[in-house]
Sequence to fold (697 residues):
Amino acid sequence: MVPISYYLVLSAILFSLGVVGFLIKRNLITLFMSIELMLNAVNLAFVAFAWQWKSLNGQVFVFFVMVVAAAEAAVGLAIIIAVFRTRETLNVDRVNLLKL
Amino acid sequence: MPQNYVPIFIFIAVVAILIPLTLGIAKLVRPEKPEKAKLMPYECGVDPIGDSRQRYTVRFYIVAILFVIFDVETIFLFPWAVLYKALAWFGFIEMMIFLTILIVGYVWVWKKGALEWI
Amino acid sequence: MIQAVDYIRVLPEIVLTLFGVAIMMVEGALPPRASRKPLGWLAFVGTLAALAATVYQAGYPGMAFFGMVRVDSFSIFFHFLIAFIAALVVLSSFEYLDAQQIRGGEYYGLILFGAVGMVLMSSAVELVLIFIALEISSISTYVLAGFRRRAPSSIESSIKYFLLGSFATAFFLYGVALIFGATGSTRIYMIAETIQGGKHSAMVFTAVALMFVGIGFKIAAAPFHVWTPDVYEGAPAPVVGLMSTAPKAAAFAVLLRIFFAAATPGWFWPVWISAALSMTLGNISALVQDNVKRLLAYSSIAHAGYLLVAFAAARDIGISAAMFYTAAYALMNVGAFAVVSHFASAGERYVTLEDYAGLGRRSPVLAATLTIFLLSLIGIPITGGFFAKFYVFSAALKSNLVWLVIIAVVNSAIAAYYYLRIIVLMYMRDAREPAPTVQNVSAPLGVALALTVAATIYLGVLPGRVLDYASRGAALLVR
Fold:
């Protein structure tokens, strides 16, 4: 029997990897993949907690998160294509018309 | 516990028999007229050999995006199908509303010409 | 089980969705070169119907859908506000879309779909539903931000908003997962019961912090505000009017519910620091801006800071002060961006402060309207902004937050400088040569401006009714 803390630690590691990836990577698609990784880390946490509380709710939440992530992916990829059309690059450092 | 793996071994055995069988029957039955375009792994025209970072037409993205959306939405059909009897009419009507909204999206995509392969 | 009354309790959402779906269908059926104006009117009718649905719904308070949605004076207040903002934004978009030559009925559909999410956010009492509502509203606004498809700046604003927005919602969601783990529930009122039982594990604190990051991003509170100026500068002006007000109002509603109704521990200092930082950073950065949209973006960060002051205050007066502030701020900001969108002209050419020089002489009515909104943003008496600030500061003082009030008052003084600078430019300076041309204000935009001015002054002269309603909502929320 695997204790629940193992899942939570794994989920925390995945989430942190997503955060770090988002902060240090420079390609728009990679940034986007980091966000997906964060969402999947959350899914893992939900499933682990669902098991801990013996409640199916956590499992159902995962369904919703997956669908929302897919919707986000569709819109995100469309926007990324639009960026590429106007800029011919996917490097965030060069998407800098508006000063940050 | 080793006996837990029995179903997996049965599964592997079924696969090992079924796949050669179907492929073999297909090979015997189908007419064979190979030509260059047909023998390429992707008939739709992407060259599979070479740098994987090459650019290809944006239409693939559009199809992929639409596929992802409509594919993932069906995830909600599964729990509904499992609990179909328990949810009865309420579940049925709610699901039809959900599907109607999806179909409206589909019709819109169609009307906008996103499904045309120009 | 589900009853008919459950559907009444989500009636505004249903109405808005139906109209949004109808717009998408008609958009598909219209010939490509036909005018999209009728779709705009359809959207406007939709927002009016949502307002009517909200009024009707007010007679049926209570929980719906297995305790996922709660209709009380609190959510009615926000429903009404959000539908009203959506109506104003639709009205002010007609002329803008013509000027920018944007053809796309989806624009109006997306406004309605976004409004669905925001309305749902304010009545949802279950964290995963809140997350879904948050995403409905965010995804719509991501697309709207990039609606000037040919302008690289608009696309850039869209991608920045999208990336940072989804980054922040991931934090919110992780917070939801942790609080689910700590309490075994995602229903706000169940969480409240568990937490008041005295189980404050480290997990609850972490969850609270993560949720604050997510919501803090949506309301553009420091230190999660860096996206705001860029996104507001690039996005179409009426859309900025929408996304600087309605999603913020909805996010504040969520924050109020989590903060006060669930009474989660560990809020006070993060909110205190975030309020002080937002006010200071927002106002100081606004001083040096020369683009009006950027300036208003920093001002909106500062206003999020003032609003958070109310959160640090005690619950009974803090909530109603925050609700009143949200309403007053939303109205004046929508109005200000409506003026900016009219003045910007094709391709959003005229958006720098220089362009506003001499506007008082060339277009007195427009300049006067903008002046009223700016005075309200400063917080001058007889405008809504005055009472909004007054209630927030007095609520904070009653809770002995002397230092925070001092910071807020100093900041209000700093803020007066840059708002007044625009007014001075408009009335005391000559226009640069060649002067930007000002078109006549179209009828729908005129109606929108008249409504916002009237509402801003109404809140400034007779704040009693709205405040009463807000206090009633506040009383229900804490119970």
